[in-house]
Structure formats: C-alpha cells, structure tokens
Design brief:
Blueprint lengths: L1 H14 L4 E6 L11 E6 L3 H10 L1
Antiparallel strand pairs: 1-2
C-alpha cells in the first residue's frame, strides 16, 4: 500500500498546481467509524488543494 500511496502523491504533484501532498493511511486495529485515510495538500490557492485531495 505504501508504494501505491507514493505513486499517487508523485502523480498529484505533477498533475495539479500544488506544493505538497501528504497521504496518511492508518493500519492495525481501527474501530468502525474511525478515519482510515488523511490527505493534506499545500497550494497557493485552496481550490487547487481541494481538487488534488478529491482526486487522491
């Protein structure tokens, strides 16, 4: 999974006008209703960050 997440990050950095993208995928014991994935994008304009996050 980590390799695929790195690939997604690299592609997003190339395709979207963002400065950085962080993807955190939790694993282990997670209860129902807990968040499993967190995606954070940094960009000069928030619309670009939101677009990249939705894509990732």
């Amino acid at each position: 999974a980590q390799k695929k997440l790195r690939e997604i990050r690299e592609r997003a950095l190339k395709e979207f006008d963002i400065l950085e993208l962080l993807i955190i995928h939790r694993y282990g014991a997670i209860t129902i209703g807990e968040n499993i994935v967190l995606i954070i994008a940094g960009a000069e304009h928030r619309a670009d960050a939101f677009t990249a996050c939705r894509w990732a």
